[in-house]
(raccoon dog) hypothetical protein (Nyctereutes procyonoides), 135 residues
Amino acid sequence: MMPRLLSLLLLLLAGPPTARPAPPTCYSRMLSLSREVTGDFQNLQAIEPSEPCVRYLPRLYLDIHNHCVLAKLRDFVASPQCWKVAQVDGLKDKVRKLYTIMNSFCRRDLVFLSDDCNALEYPMPVTTILPDHQR
């Protein structure tokens, strides 16, 4: 009786069995990589704002549902090299990877909802609208 109770107690303390998460889909990989690229670009601008090559890089506010994002990614990769700033090379590698994923591997999974190139230059700020009872 005691060994059985001890085994049950150990099972309860171990917690539930770990479930394997579902593998990422093409869409989830594109979405997470585009967010990562946007965040890295914003960090780069904050860390190296006075570096001339960083100042003249094309803006990277990415929306994978906007058809203009493909041209935006191509422009960024084609921008001049920053020899002094290693983070730019890493960012360009991520941008190149995102472009390849979007244009080759996940082409059929992608649905463009807009074709507004200005939205990628000057994005609308995200606002949260509270329900009436929370105002």
Summary: The CA atoms of residues 129 and 135 lie 9 Å apart. The mean pLDDT is 78.
